[in-house]
Amino acid sequence: MKEKAKASLVLLGISVIWGSTFPVMKVAVKDFPPITFIAIRFTVASLLMLFLLKKELRGDQIIPGLILGVTLFLGHGFQIVGLKYTTASNSAFITSLYVVFTPFVAYLILRKIIKVEDSVALILAILGLYLISNARLSLNYGDLLTIIAALSFAFQIVLVEYFSRYGIGIAFWQVFWNAVLSTAYALIAEGLPTPEGSVLLAILYTGIFATALAFFAQVKYQPKVEAYRAAILYSAEPVFGHLLSLVTLGEMLSVKGYLGALLIMSAIWIELYKEKLNRN
Fold this sequence. Notes:
By secondary structure, this protein is an all-alpha fold. It has one domain (about 1-280). Helix content is about 80%, strand content about 0%. It contains twelve helices and no strands. The longest helix is centred in the first third of the chain and has 27 residues, at about 1-30. The chain is globular.
């Protein structure tokens, strides 16, 4: 029980770290090219993960890692560019929609059945998205990009399951390929400028703690708790993201925004509860 409690605290800590990246990246990319930020962040993470997982790496993991790297590149790329045009709080809650999108992506790739609860969760998520985006029929540019990011992360989650037979070494390869793709794009489109000051600190924080160490801790400790319990702990990420954005950036949602956030979280909890029932 002590080991499970320790693992749960570690996973909750990961959620806090991931939630904290939203205001950190929001400030960092204000005057710095966003894909260059991702490129350097994931290069730092790749070097550290190479050290942590070098004994787990095999040649047959390279192509699956590349496919996963593409989904991460699209997810993080759309997310961080979207952050330039929306609030850190909106980004945190909208990104979390990957939980709701995942069953539908799983149907496309794994042919897993879509259940009634999935459709209910999707409807709640759409209503929540409508409210959190200031109750407009047309989403703002940043929110739209973040939806694409959430969909990309849903593909990444399903493909991790699909490629699980290749072992935990693919955790490194997906981060490595994300770094390669981001660097190539940044060289062409942004010139790959050198980060300084607070931007460099943000890159080191997100690269070391929110990427390399968080992914390594996830691989090490998540198997020690039930999958549904881990998912519930991860679902705290947008809540921490908003609270930290409120404290550091002074961001507050409108009444409709908070109602939208509640609907999004309700949609996520429906999915997590369904997962718990399926495993019992």
